[in-house]
Design a protein that fits this description.
The chain is 39% helix and 31% strand. With 95 residues, the chain is α+β, with helices and mostly antiparallel strands. The chain starts with a strand and ends in an 8-residue tail after the last strand.
Length: 95
């Protein structure tokens, strides 16, 4: 059975903020590359949900997107919830 992918508002906001920052700070090509890499990682999570490492919370897993970003997600019986795109340069991880 294929699970539905649920994208939280927090994940959407984090993604948009990162994309906008890359666009302003670097270039459209760098920002577009970020979105491509994010799409590849999400596809990996969909195909193999257990691929990410467990986080401090037992029901949440994480996967490195880039040295500065980590994707946090939750696997349920019917869905994969994309919870947060976290900037690793911050001091405390969210999960």
């Amino acid at each position: 059975m294929e699970r539905k992918v649920v994208v939280t508002k927090r994940f959407q906001k984090n993604t948009l903020n990162t994309y906008t920052w890359l666009l302003k700070k670097f270039s459209a090509a760098v920002a577009f590359n970020f979105l491509n890499k994010l799409q590849q990682r999400v596809e990996l999570i969909i195909q193999n949900p257990e691929t990410g490492k467990p986080s401090a919370r037992a029901d949440v897993r994480s996967l490195i997107l880039h040295p500065h970003n980590r994707i946090y997600y939750r696997i349920t019986e019917h869905a994969i919830e994309l919870l947060c795109l976290f900037d690793m340069r911050k001091k405390k991880e969210p999960y």
